[in-house]
Amino acid sequence: MTDFEKTRSLFYLPEGIVYLDGNSLGPLPLAAKERVARLMTDEWGELLIKGWNKAGWMMMPRKVGDRVGRLIGAPEGTVVMGDTLSIKVYQALASALELRPERKVILSDSGNFPSDLYMADGLIRSLGRSHELKIVEPEEVEAAIDETVGVLMLTEVDYRTGRLHDMKSLTKKAHDKGAIAVWDLAHSAGALPVDLTGADADFAVGCTYKYLNGGPGAPAFIYVAPRLADKVRPALSGWLGHETPFAFDLGYRPGGGIDRMRVGTPPILGLVALDAALDAWEGVDMADLRQQSIKLCDLFVAEVEKRCPMLTLGSPRNGEKRGSQISFLHREGYAIMQALIARGVIGDFRAPDAIRFGFTPLYIGERDVLKAVSILEDIMTNRLWDAAEYKQRALVT
Amino acid sequence: MTDFEKTRSLFYLPEGIVYLDGNSLGPLPLAAKERVARLMTDEWGELLIKGWNKAGWMMMPRKVGDRVGRLIGAPEGTVVMGDTLSIKVYQALASALELRPERKVILSDSGNFPSDLYMADGLIRSLGRSHELKIVEPEEVEAAIDETVGVLMLTEVDYRTGRLHDMKSLTKKAHDKGAIAVWDLAHSAGALPVDLTGADADFAVGCTYKYLNGGPGAPAFIYVAPRLADKVRPALSGWLGHETPFAFDLGYRPGGGIDRMRVGTPPILGLVALDAALDAWEGVDMADLRQQSIKLCDLFVAEVEKRCPMLTLGSPRNGEKRGSQISFLHREGYAIMQALIARGVIGDFRAPDAIRFGFTPLYIGERDVLKAVSILEDIMTNRLWDAAEYKQRALVT
To answer: Out of B4, B11, B90, B113, which one is annotated catalytic?
Structure first.
């Protein structure tokens, strides 16, 4: 059984705070603080340019990619780190479209994170508007997969509601209809067991600052199925995806396998922080994590529904059908969340009306859940959110 | 007069090392070490998700962009940070091509950094191969700018030789012929005075881990001329370039001005390190920097030519015609550089035969130059490079 008391001890959690926003930005792993300090002093400071070889910086996108891969069912050598999730979406989608040149429809849903849709829109415009982005409701996705679809592009866990798509069956349907499946694991990686190999996914992408605790703006990842990795074109053909970057040839030749999805010089500060953050996963059994996550979420739902009747559940009630987060809906959601934050319970708000809470067993326990509900109950019962100070919108919500 | 003794004191330079590779990776600014430690503890650790508003993370790409802008002649609000240089090249080029839809030629030269050419190649393929990347020799660029050229895409300072293009006259010629000018300032920003406004450049991009000392894989920048910023399409249309990112609309609407060149979640560790590194530029007069840079380079050339006759100068002799770096050519350049590094003189090697040295007055003085030449002379005179250990190629050269 995974020791979640031990994993909790690996994080810095400010006194008096119940942090239910690790689905947006994970807390500071103590190891990341140490590791970054060592990078600054012993590597950048002492080794200078030699750090690229001697400290292994150049290979970090692959090394860290393999560590992320172990959490998402990806074999060694199939995941590489770099850039942001939006860029990785673009890479995956551009490659996927070229594998089905005769198909002109990208199918996605309204539960996808908007940036994925925006990147698709930009790509379609570059491609001369020959393609169409078709957006259906999440529950209509399966029926909408037909022979016109070239690429099915979905986020497995809905960022607002936590609703979980069935990756395996949707990928199978996509393949049956001749389409390529691109999965965004932003709210999945580290939140629940993911099995890219078992689901036979073609591409997957994700970010690492949520459940993987890599820090603000930590690098993203991309997975390409081994059967495709040597076939795909990297639309963003940067020098570190070249077969021999340091030959400085004028012409581009893609590197072997997943290496071709590298683009520019990797962000080493972010990569070492993430690498250290991933230490917390050593010894964690993903089945234990899932069981505990569902238990915490179920407890939160039950207690909130009992004690705060004016809030409406915005997430699937069945734990098997959602990720590791719970949303409740209320017209004054923004102010309610501000009032919660002022009382030390940190979640976030997603327009138009969702207050969202992430539950990450690595550092959140039952006591935290009960404390959060008590404070939420006080705020709702006494309308504490109804103060002008909580209604002022900040830049980042 | 700029106090270069003072700027030198702002960097950590390992004992006994002469660091002539700041044109590849600048040394550690002491302020960056402190600032990153504070980010980890006081911001990520204590503020958690609130750091995006309270520590100003969300606005850092603009704030740091403005600081970089002051070093390259860009007005406030015209530069934004993020991603890697390769990605920024793609953005600039895609936008530039759309401003000249009827023109099908991208003109560049063989002195451009290969990644710029690779990214152009990838973009052309996405655009359906309707465009052509024409690569001429650096000295043929001016004559090759004609009415067929849609975009002139050049790196101002050649990464191998240090040869400096005349940005102002080439931009003027491009404009006279109806073309858009995209400038890569990778080896210019912080190396010499740059005046994007005076040159009337359309787009500029650059990296910040060289002369700006932002650290390994520090974020890149992009400049768009104010007269174009609201007209251009962001091909990489990510959520943070959206007019209202936190409205989570399904449709993309570009943000105003330079904001639309933002893509995904910004890399905060890299941004704060860079922000602190830029403190070293407060009080630096770029004309002083240029004068001192030319003096150091001229001294190095004169001494090496006098004392190492087997090396051939690979850089322009006239200081006004080059950046802040000097290359010498030798068939055994790789081994010579390894021998130098073993003796504490750090430069780098660029295939096929260039040993390359960067001179950055912020922390390099005449004594360093003379010490480097003495060691180089010893290595050349006594053929110390002719040892097997110096001929083994490392991953990063």
So the answer is: B113
Q: Is the pLDDT of residue A238 over 80?
A: yes
pLDDT (tens digit, 9 = 90+) per residue, B14-39?
A: 999 999 999 999 999 999 999 999 99
Active site residue B356: yes
CB contact A248 to B (< 8 Å) = yes
Catalytic residue among B4, B209, B328, B334: B209
- Over the stretch A163-181, which tens digit does the pLDDT of each residue have? 999 999 999 999 999 999 9
Question: Which residues on chain A are in Cβ contact (under 8 Å) with B238?
Answer: 84, 86-87, 115, 118-119
Chain A touched by B207 (CB under 8 Å): yes
The CATH architecture that domain B32-281 belongs to is: 3-Layer(aba) Sandwich (3.40)
Sign of CA dihedral A183, A185, A187, A193: positive
Contacts of B119 by beta carbon, 8 Å cutoff, 6+ apart: A236, A237, A238, B86, B87, B89, B90, B93
Tens of pLDDT, residue by residue over A252-300, are 999 999 999 999 999 999 999 999 999 999 999 999 999 999 999 999 9
Grade residue A396 by pLDDT with cuts at 50, 70 and 90: confident
Q: What dotted CATH number matches A4-28+284-390?
A: 3.90.1150.10
Phi and psi at A322, nearest 5°, equal -140, 170
Fold of B4-29+284-390: Aspartate Aminotransferase, domain 1 (3.90.1150)
Q: What single letter denotes the amino acid at residue B260?
A: R
End-to-end C-alpha distance for chain B, whole angstroms: 37
Size of interface A-B (CB pairs under 8 A): 290
Q: Smallest Cβ distance to A237: which of B37, B46, B122?
A: B122
- Length of chain A, please? 397
